[in-house]
TrEMBL record:
Name of the molecule in the record: Syntaxin-binding protein 5-like
Membrane topology reported for the UniProt record: Peripheral membrane protein
Family, per entry: Belongs to the WD repeat L(2)GL family.
GO term, biological process aspect, one: exocytosis
Location within or outside the cell: Cell membrane; Cytoplasm
Keywords per UniProt: Cell membrane, Coiled coil, Cytoplasm, Exocytosis, Membrane, Phosphoprotein, Protein transport, Repeat, Transport, WD repeat
Region (Disordered): 534-572, 829-862
Residue ranges with Polar residues bias: 547-572
Keyword Transcription attributed: no
WD-type repeats, residues: 211-246
Main location: membrane
All residue ranges annotated as the V-SNARE coiled-coil homology domain in the record: 1041-1101
GO CC term (a single one): plasma membrane
Amino acid sequence: VLANQKAKCANSFVLRKNPTVEEFLLCLTVRHGFPYQPSALAFDPVQKILAIGTQTGALRLFGRPGVECYCQHDSGAAVIQLQFLINEGALVSALADDTLHLWNLRQKRPAILHSLKFNRERITFCHLPFQSKWLYVGTERGNIHIVNVESFTLSGYVIMWNKAIELSSKSHPGPIVHISDNPMDEGKLLIGFESGTVVLWDLKSKKADYRYTHDEAIHSVAWHHEGKQFICSHSDGTLTIWNVKSPTKPFQTITPHGKQLKDGKKPEPCKPILKVEYKTTRAGEPFIILSGGLSYDTVGRRPCLTVMHGKSTAVLEMDYSIVDFLTLCETPYPNDFQEPYAVVVLLEKDLVLIDLAQNGYPIFENPYPLTIHESPVTCCEYFADCPVDLIPALYSVGARQKRQGYSKKEWPISGGNWGLITQSYPEIIITGHADGSIKFWDASAITLQVLYKLKTAKVFEKSRNKDDRPNTDIVDEDPYAIQIISWCPESRMLCIAGVSAHVIIYRFSKQEVTTEVIPMLEVRLLYEINDVESPDGDQVPPLPTPGTGSNPQSIVPQSHPSTSSIKNSPLKQSPGYQIELVIQLVWVSGEPPQQITSLAVNSAYGLVVFGNCNGIAMVDYLQKTVLLNLGTIELYGSNDPYRREPRSPRKTRQPSGGMLTVASCMCGLSNLYSESVKKLRTSYISKSSHVSIHFMLKNKKENLYSVNPCILPFFLINTDLFSDVKDNSFSRSRSSSVTSIDKETREAISALHFCETFTRKSDTSPSPCLWVGTTLGTVLVIVLNLPPGGEQRLLQPVIVSPSGTILRLKGAILRMAFLDTTGSLVPPAHEPWREHNVAEDKDEKDKSKKRRPVSVSPSSSQEISENQYAVICSEKQAKVISLPSQNCIYKQNITETSFVLRGDIVSLNNSICLACFCANGHIMTFSLPSLRPLLDVYYLPLTNMRIARTFCFTNNGQALYLVSPTEIQRLTYSQETCENLQEMLGELFTPVETPEAPNRGFFKGLFGGGAQSLDREELFGESASGKASRSLAQHIPGPGGIEGVKGAASGVVGELARARLALDERGQKLGELEEKTAAMLYSADSFSKHAHEMMLKYKDKKWYQF
């Protein structure tokens, strides 16, 4: 029989194209968001490209809005400094593992051309003069080495610390903290040592011209553009300005934030000034810009950037600590008036641009999507191929939320060019956050832009003080954190579940409304396991009946108020998402409500359903009534495979109009929580908790990850995961009573799916129903009997009844979907969106009465035939079940040793497939309905709960997850998208003419003034300085190689690039030769050494003395 059904199924799917293995390929596309843990900053003033390096070795490059790029150093070492080869399309990165890397930016995916690994010295500071190929590298020992950036080899020219400082000095001057050449004389190098010594070194004569000593440690140094003065920032909060030719004492000492004492004493010391920049203008006073330096008595004051301009000092407070800042100037030439126009400030968690040209120094509006982490992300959903009118609708309501007071100027980081748009379908990402906010993002064509922000916490009263807060030991600082998002793009209905066991249903409107009373239902969803003594055992609270809602007074015990109190004052609701109904699970018998594990909303039926580890509740949000409130065990009725019974059955049960509406007075599973877990009930997963569970897969010794026990998602509740765990941390974090309860009593609702399908084997036509999946692998079907549309829908009750259908899989149920006989996905019924806040005219009312929800048409055939196929995915396996016969025609065991974290049924190239992400790091896809494996790639082992909480697949081969607390990583499993990706990526490098050098003027040229140039090749080249010691640093050819430059050289950058290409090819060939001749070189060195000794021995002897 099964073979016949498979044959029938195969024949029916001939109409539809079957997916092939060749259509699937996994690759990363783009990374969005703020660079996590930033550590370095650089700007190319000609190309107008910004680069940010991070503590994890990542490199993010930003051009004009929409042009972004992510690269990664393989070592993962922190980036300590970045230096652009200005207008050359290249970048040097210095890492904490003492390596230098040369990045080629002339290709869409930048690659490393060369690397240089220092073996004996630690890199502390680098400086690359404008239009120079010689990079100065300062080290912890106080020495300076010089690297040729074209060949990435060391020069034999070295500035040793003991030559730079005075011979009389007995102490080491400390690491190099600054290197720069005099703007007016490239032959003079200013070297700053940490201890406070600054040296002006003459490169030609190889000796120090001047030495400047100061008692306080130096953090940074900056030149005046005329090269006659420089400024140092110190650890005591002072700035010292020095005249180059007066090394004995500073020309001026400034303490920007020091209190001036009356008796002429030195100001009190302040915090260190970490960086200073000195920028001049033609028309006015110079700018001195600094970070740090606040006085020690400003406790609790936020980090500041100070802008000193003439006699005015502006202190600009920042939200986070300052990592680095750069002043953007009109000219790349250091020997010209700088004309600063903006300051880029890299903060720990933000990027701020300050407009120096306008009064008050306003900030620029940041066009990059860097606010993903504004509040920590707790969940996200991804929707590709949305209705085309959705993004404009969200944008129009979101545009009203924009802040005012930004700079009127264009965003100054404007380099690069956009890629070609080869994807035409709309994509939306929704992120839920710890503060209860929800953000909608336009993610079309590998870009990201925020559309609209919804604050769900607005519905709740904010606690004025701690006395107002009920049970402060339990209520967490993030009581509104979003856990689950259910969204219907077609009807625009939105439903969220929060960490405090609340559900809010929203309807989209373009009109502003004021809601006098927020509609609210309170639900008791707790199932009786133990005998609980009641003060009055015979008294049963009244049942909620359709149309009347739930009476809070009869439900909520006075001693245990609901977790969050709803506002009782009128609420003004702006255009966008507006509250339709708030549902709050309440305390029962002294126990807080369990967190919601699954959620679904259906606009055609007007229903929302949610479940947790105690049971399931269904609410009619149109009539504002509870339709269903059952413990999970009661869903089975007499068909329970575990033969469980409530240990304290209810004394009375009162039916209500034939419905399954159950008394809401279920008593608590009071011994399920230990005190420590209670305190952490709502804690947000990214925050450190004192209670953790270390759990592992079966037969695995290593811990997978730690997670707060009270917010384990349903796929982690399954006790199979814990069966081999002997770790004490598990037993400590859960009460001892948990282990004594058999696993069946902790069956949670893990998946919910509204659909119009066959509910029983005997059905001849599909009908509206709800499919319920549990953590024990059971699927149950609930039949929905809906009243007619229009006014009748608001007057007649929805009848909910069990179908008796039970299906079983191995592992918790994750996802369910339905296919028709052609293999097309049957979407849940939905109502098209319409404006609810505008009065309908008579014709519209008549239409709405007749309106049928968009859904599957019933079968006209009276005979029973296979009309639909249910696709069910669990943590362990997937099944395709034919309906209405309920025969399993295909089965696939997805994983034996691991478990599926996320499974989605998605469309790709006109075919439907199942996409899965496993905890062992594998991404897999299967054809439907045959469940044939199409893709299995080891990609990302589950290292933390953030990945599990945010990973999601969507249509057209797209997927994403939160790769760090601040960044979204997007990937594709579509071969077509992988092939088109190169075209879609933006260009970082664009050919731009370098500005002309400043004019020296007639008198300066005549009398020798102006900038003095230096032939560095003559000084640092091999012929003049010899070869550097090979043991000092090791050259490593980069993976970018010559091919990357060849791509850039084709017709875009002309002869210069071709000449550089020839040099690089020559250098690469020489590098290969160098390896082959290493032994010969060693032999030659040995011979040279002996010859030198012989020469010294016989140097003074006459020919006749030999």
